[in-house]
Amino acid sequence: MQIKDSWILNALMESTADSIYIKDRQCRVWRVSKKMAIDLGYNDPAGIYGKTDVELFGEELGRRTIKDDLQIMETGIPQMGVIESWINPNGKVNWTSTTKMPLRNDEGEVIGLLGITREVNELKNAEIESQFRATHDPLTSLANRFLLMDQIKQSIFSARAYNRLFALLFIDLNGFKQINDTVGHDKGDEYLIQLAQVLTKNVRLSDTVARFGGDEFVIVLNHLGHIEDALTIAQKIWDVICHDVDPESHTVTASIGVSIFPLHGEDPETLLKAADQAMYCAKTSSLGFKLAGN
Question: Is 189 considered catalytic here?
Fold first, then answer.
């Protein structure tokens, strides 16, 4: 039995789970699969014919894909398995893997391109979740030690480039063990989660709040104008820990050590050690916080 090529193409366009499309040299859609049409909100694939990606996906994504399409058709070099994302009509992020190949006529001239796009949302979301678990504390969702060290390195690079200061606040909770001992670890976990939310709310988006371990936390304060700015924020953080996290019993207080780049060190380990030592000195200070070296 002889099967015509057009029948195979029609079968693919009607039944495949991937989005398949063919474009002409002007990057206008010539054919699309039924799956792609439905995803874009068209019951009839013919409603897409003649449109460009700017019309289908918006200016930003459309211009980018048209640039890629033109390059493929001009060079004859395909693109294989390109991962990208876009916001679908339902407002959700859609992750896809796309392969694009030049289409040639019998004389070998490029007359368009064939694209095959497969949704990889489950794979990509699993990858994102895995990356998040590797860099964040599982209880509080704050940055963990690994991410903290990376953030400090980035802060050092930025501070050197722009001749700015940044600070580390090393926070140790006083009295937290009593929560675990008297009302249980579940209540202790609830306290730490609440504390993480309060700390995050009281710093800027450019800063980083990390759980260093147990009842120890570190805050990276970026783009400071003066050393006094770090001390002002340390006072604010001490106040919210003592009064806002547990407004009923006020059983937990904090000791905070402050180190400044480059005054107290020019690498993450030295800065953390200086802030840690200052934190222990703060335990005997009436203020509850202490600047390293003072």
Answer: no
